[in-house]
Amino acid sequence: MTTKELILQELEQVPEATLRTVLDFLRSLKQGRTESRAESPFAQFSGILSDEEAEDIQAMVAEEFEQVDLNAW
Fold first, then answer.
1. What is the superkingdom listed in this entry's lineage (predicted)?
2. Who is most buried in 10, 32, 43, 51, counting CB within 10 A?
3. pLDDT digits (tens, 9 = 90+) for 6-65
4. Contact 28, 34 (CB under 8 A)
């Protein structure tokens, strides 16, 4: 059997949710994105925040940590 035939045979026994994951993975392989994502330990968190949530967090960090109290030193 060819590799393609073996893959198709395995896919016949996989639940729909897993098929969706496999499809997403194959598409990312075709686009060449998996190497860069695999290198980052934070890749699993990519895209979990909305733009609004990310902006809120950035504003909080700036407010709390981008100030220097010269009298505190």
1. Bacteria
2. 43
3. 999 999 999 999 999 999 999 988 887 545 555 678 878 888 888 999 999 999 988 888
4. yes
- pLDDT by residue (tens digit) across 46-55? 888 889 999 9
Burial class of residue 51 (count of CB atoms within 10 Å of its CB; 0-12, 13-18, 19+) = exposed
Q: Which residue, among 12, 37, 11, 35, has the nearest Cα to 22 in the 3D structure?
A: 11
Fill in the amino acid letter for 45: F
Three-class DSSP category at 67: coil
Q: Residue 58 has which token pair?
A: 């950035």
